[in-house]
Specification:
Helix content is 39%, strand content 20%. It is α+β, with helices and mostly antiparallel strands. The N terminus is likely disordered.
């Protein structure tokens, strides 16, 4: 009995081994190996599909960036700057009536001139010049006054030299004082004048500033002597009569 049982177990083991060998020969093992290879291949393909393309990304970024920056820089910077500077410069120079290029010299053609004796100071004549033109005008230096056919010109009082040129807007007036004779009688060659001529100077001393003026004098005339002098043109009447 025991030997028969041993033989039966041996036969059974041989049968199991044969079945396993038969399964391998059927291709079951080959099929399993093929499935593993397909799975690995599919994973590789999936990775290749989802990975970004470096060449494509670089091309899109470069094109977009260059186009935007170039357009913004050229359009905004150059156009706006030129319009602002050009417009401001023209408006300032043409609109400012006090700009040197827009001012003219005051003279007998664009002013009204009067000459009046005053009670104080003694023996003084006040010359008033009013701008009747449409532009700002300058009274430069001092008036060149002459009575009748005088052969000499009264000199200016240096102490009356103003800090700036007397400038008159349309309708404004400038002034100059004239000492006709010394109060103490120290002058000589005294005489009475009946006609007064007021000449204007230009941009440089002793140059002509244009037409002269001949303001009327009192009917009896005015007395003057060799001590006569004039002030520089003043912006204020009190300054012209302060000497």
């Amino acid at each position: 009995m025991r030997s028969r049982r041993i033989r039966l177990l041996a036969a059974t083991g041989a049968t199991v081994a044969a079945l396993a060998l038969t399964a391998c020969e059927d291709g079951t093992g080959a099929k399993d190996e093929g499935a593993s290879q397909l799975t690995a291949s599919a994973s590789a393909n999936t990775s290749a599909t989802t990975s970004p393309d470096p060449t494509a990304d670089a091309g899109d970024g470069s094109g977009t960036g260059t186009g935007t920056n170039a357009g913004t820089g050229a359009g905004t910077g150059t156009g706006a700057g030129q319009k602002t500077n050009s417009g401001t410069g023209k408006a300032t120079s043409s609109a400012d009536p006090y700009a040197p290029a827009n001012r003219v010299a005051c003279n007998g053609s664009n002013t009204a001139v009067t000459a009046q004796k005053v009670a104080r100071p003694l023996n003084h004549l006040l010359i008033t010049v009013r701008n009747t033109g449409s532009k700002v005008c300058d009274l430069t230096y001092y008036p060149v006054v002459r009575f009748d056919e005088m052969q000499w010109v009264p000199q200016p009082l240096k102490a009356s030299h103003p800090q700036a040129v007397t400038t008159l807007a349309p309708g404004e007036s400038g002034y100059a004082g004239v000492l006709l004779s010394a109060a103490d009688g120290s002058g000589d060659g005294g005489t009475t004048g009946h006609k007064l001529t007021v000449a204007f100077q230009g941009r440089t001393p002793d140059s002509s500033g244009g037409a002269s003026a001949t303001p009327p004098l009192p009917a009896k005339g005015v007395y003057y002597d060799s001590s006569m002098w004039v002030t520089y043109w003043q912006q204020d009447m009190d300054d012209a009569l302060a000497y």
